[in-house]
Amino acid sequence: MAAKKKPNVSAEELLGHYREMLMIRRFEEKAGQLYGMGLIGGFCHLYIGQEAVVVGLEAAAEEGDKRVTSYRDHGHMLACGMDPKGVMAELTGREGGYSRGKGGSMHMFSKEKHFYGGHGIVAAQVPLGAGLAFADKYLGNDRVSFAYFGDGAANQGQVYETFNMASLWKLPVIFVIENNQYAMGTSQQRSSSTPDIYTRGAGFGIPGEIVDGMDVLAVKAAGEKAVAHCRSGEGPYILEVKTYRYRGHSMSDPAKYRTREEVQKMRDERDPIEQVRELLLTGKHASDDDLKAIDKEIKAIVNEAAEFSKESPEPDVSELWTDIYADEIPQEA
Ligand SMILES: Cc1ncc(C[n+]2csc(CCOP(=O)(O)OP(=O)(O)O)c2C)c(N)n1
Ligand SMILES: [Mg+2]
Prior knowledge:
This protein is an alpha/beta fold. It has helices at residues 11-36, 51-60, 74-79, 84-91, 125-139, 157-168, 188-191, 216-231, 260-270, 272-282, 288-311; strands at 66-68, 145-150, 173-179, 182-183, 186-187, 208-212, 237-242. The protein has a single domain, classed as Rossmann fold (3-Layer(aba) Sandwich). The longest helix has 26 residues, at 11-36. Residues 150-152, 180, 182-183 line the site of magnesium ion.
């Protein structure tokens, strides 16, 4: 394999990526624990292993850009700057959560951070992402929308209806296929007619490429290219980001469809956080102690979020009647 060209990156930037990926990992580990303790109910899909995808792409985004994703969404929320306390409290179904405890893991939103969910229906977010981009195009700004979806979702019909319209209207949307190689228990090899999913954009005139999703710098570089394409008015772009989830599809997955060795090999050889840790240590940008201190700091933030999510009260029964219809009709964006 040819040596990979790494983009130039400062120590601060590397440390930032390290910190953000570690925050997602520690948050998800804690969410897994709280689920095991019965404090989180319902669906819960962890993002562990995939951290470099969203951290790399958020590094390529600018203020005002939008994002929408599936149910595997906690990492996306944290990476766009949502408060870990509000996310964790939503997981435990408490008033302090982003949807006041009424949405749970798959249904959180933040207008302030331009995070449009959190969607439980496979691929439903893909046309919504194109809709967000349509609004920006209509308003004449240069914002870009990121529509994240999985390898399994990529086989859904609405994805291709969306590709057609997005290309026809040159919408500024980046279709991010988070190819973690499995859709629940079905491997991509068994379910996809084409090994490289991004090539399906060609039929609609949408360019795209494959990205190493375990390498945050490669993801960021590809993200910058895609963002530049969209901002300059050239229409949509597809990034097929090859990644891997370490945990089961959801908390109730017995994971009988793959071997432990396969998972362990990924963890040992390709872990996105370990790769950045190596770069930081070998480049003498940080010492072992510096990295331990960052871990401690992050664990403290996550523990604080967990405490908040336990202490925040359950929503009042009257909340059943709120957030159903829009109270105000927005006049202008
Ligand atoms: C329309 C629809 N069909 C089926 C399901 C059940 N389901 C939930 S997740 C999932 C697999 C999706 O896999 P993928 O798109 O690869 O995303 P990943 O879970 O790997 O992130 C399925 C079939 C659903 N939620 N919605
Ligand atoms: Mg998948």
